[in-house]
Amino acid sequence: MATSHQSDIRIRTATAHDAAALVAAIDEVAQEGCYLARSTFQQDPAVEAAHIELTVQHGGTVLVAEVDGRLAGWLTLQRDKTPYRKHVCLLGMGVLRPYRHRGLGKALLKEALRYAREAQHIDRVELAVRATNLAAIGLYQSVGFAYEGRRIGAIRDDAGTYDDEILMAYDPAADEAPTSR
Fold first, then answer.
1. Which is it for the CA torsion 98, 102, 106, 109, positive or negative?
2. How large is the greatest C-alpha to C-alpha distance in the chain, in angstroms?
3. 62: left (phi over 0), alpha (psi -120 to 50) or beta
4. Is residue 175 included in any domain, yes or no?
5. For residue 89, what are the β-bridge partners?
6. Which range among 101-105, 143-147, 158-162, 173-177 shows the weakest confidence by mean pLDDT?
7. Is residue 178 very low, low, confident or very high in pLDDT (cuts 50, 70, 90)?
8. pLDDT tens sequence across 37-84
9. Is 176 a domain residue?
10. Which residues span the domain enclosing 105?
11. Which residues are within 8 A (CB) of 166 and not within 5 positions of it... i.e. 6 or more apart?
């Protein structure tokens, strides 16, 4: 995959060498307690390196965003392995706090959706986002994701506070939100 540049942002495909920085970035966002479905991410970098390689081997991709050579965000498109859902990729992403509202998330999404449009047999990209994460919901809608549902109380944080999950999807063939078939 070619790299793309937007001002000082570099989007590229992750490699096993990115594993330690990726684990640290995911953990940093998780510890904020309001974006991911976890409060910490204590993955062994060797396990994360294997995860990156397996994601790619199964037809997905892991992207990283760098600003001035530092990992500032990530996005994973992971193929669903369920037999009747192999046409689906699950999207997960995050951007470190100092780099938010600078176009990183949109740059990652545009590259991932380009990948999905060009890859074989990806008919659908799905994601789940916390209902309180209005900035992310707006970002997803701006690139063509559509609201598909809500899981009430699907998230319960360490303090016992509940949040809903918003389910969204994108149709790469239509380059827009999915419609009923």
1. negative
2. 44
3. beta
4. no
5. 79, 125
6. 173-177
7. low
8. 888 899 899 999 999 999 999 999 999 999 999 999 999 999 999 989
9. no
10. 4-170
11. 128, 129, 130, 131, 137, 147, 149, 150
Tokens of 141: 């809608």
The tokens describing 4, both together, are 């793309």
For the record, the structure tokens of 42 come out as 């204590």
SS3 162: strand
Domain count, the chain: 1
CA-based nearest residue to 140, from 150, 149, 127, 131: 127
Tell which residue, 64, 60, 69, 70, has the closest CA to residue 94: 64
Residue with token string 């545009």? 110
Residue 25 near residue 71 (C-beta atoms within 8 A) = yes
CA distance 124 to 129: 16
Rounded to whole angstroms, how far apart are CA atoms 2 and 18? Answer: 17
Amino acid at residue number 39: S
Instruction: Please state, in angstroms and rounded to a whole number, the distance separating the CA atoms of residues 107 and 3.
Output: 11
In the structure encoding, which two tokens stand for residue 36, read together? 């991911």
